[in-house]
Amino acid sequence: MGNTSGKSLRRGTADKSSSSLSLKGREDTVENLSRWITAEKRRTQDILEENYDVYKQRMHLLKHMFKQLDPNIMATATFVNHGDLELAVKYDVSRRQLLVKIIQARDLRARDLRGKTSDPYVKLWLQKERGGEVGNVYKTRIMPKTLSPKWNEIFSFPIDNMDLLDGTFLIFQVWDNDITERDDMIGENVVSISSMNISSGRHEFNAWYSLKASTDLNITGTVSFDISFEMPDVLTIKVLKGEGLTQKSTDRLPNCRVKLQVPGIALCFETEIKENTIDPVWEETFEFPVTLDQLCTKYIVLHVIDVRDGQQNETLGQIIYDLDNITPHSGFNGTMELADLKNSERLRSRWFQHFLLQEFRESLTAHANFHQPSFLFKNSEGTKVHLFPIEYKVFVNIL
């Protein structure tokens, strides 16, 4: 009996010792794993920083490929369709006239009381970039109760020299005629004459244009700001000052504030309000949590507003700055012009904020890191990345 107890006691002591060793082994394993993960994270970060230019090239190639395969991936998820307008433009050299033909519209927004149809007409004129109309403001016939009107009307703008059209825009607006109340705008577009390639006067330019919310071409002024990046994930923006901002009210100067946002990051900052000035000075600094690999896919929006007590605030313009230009070793220090960018695809886009499309962004990052699909990347001449144009074209056609 005594021997049995002794054996049991020794066995129990051995089991307890073995358990302690096993527990200590697990702790060592966890600690080693933690060290490995930390080291691997640092190594990956170091590689990414050293090869950041190559990484950016890969991301651009991938985004371009996916945009070709499915443009909807890179398009806005919150687009409001105002309809489309077809027009033709030609410069008559002998008569020295710019001829604009309003042909037709399709898929217009219904603006009547019942929301089923509209009575559309078009207003059009020429305007310089910073205001000032050129020639007359024309208006087509009213087409009753239709969302697909056909006008086929031609309007002429006397232009003695094609050089006078540099920096000139054609503005066309589609309106819904309302007999009892004020007419409602359905949508507009602003098109640079220089983009139409009609300088020779030999060809007629014909195209469909999507209608958007109205654009204010009278926005003026600049904003000066600094941007810097600090590893691992601190993006710093310092808003310095504004100069020559727009004064939209004749009886008062604006109360200026800047709103800052990086789409896809749930933070929005605001500067202090600088009252009664078109040349505000802020000198305020803000920080966003942005990682190095996010720099080539994100941008920052600076939106200047006129704060009005008891009234709706007025927009004084926006600036969009691509963080693709920022690296851990070089930032931005400068001045940019304000513009009315509310119709910008970026300001209307919410694809970074959508869960599935956020996964898509992360997928792009993984592809860029692991050089997949392999046909898209080819390393030669050091770290330069090349695209296989033939295979890429075949791949797109197959899909």
From TrEMBL:
Residues 1-26 are annotated as: Disordered. Pfam families: C2. InterPro entries: C2_dom (IPR000008), C2_domain_sf (IPR035892), Synaptotagmin (IPR001565). SMART domains: C2 (SM00239). Gene3D superfamilies: C2 domain. One of its GO terms (biological process) is calcium-ion regulated exocytosis. Keywords: Repeat. Transmembrane segments: none annotated. GO terms for molecular function: calcium ion binding; calcium-dependent phospholipid binding; clathrin binding; phosphatidylserine binding; SNARE binding. It comes from the Eukaryota. GO terms for cellular component: exocytic vesicle; plasma membrane. Residues 81-209, 219-336 form the C2 domain. This is DgyrCDS4487. It comes from Dimorphilus gyrociliatus.
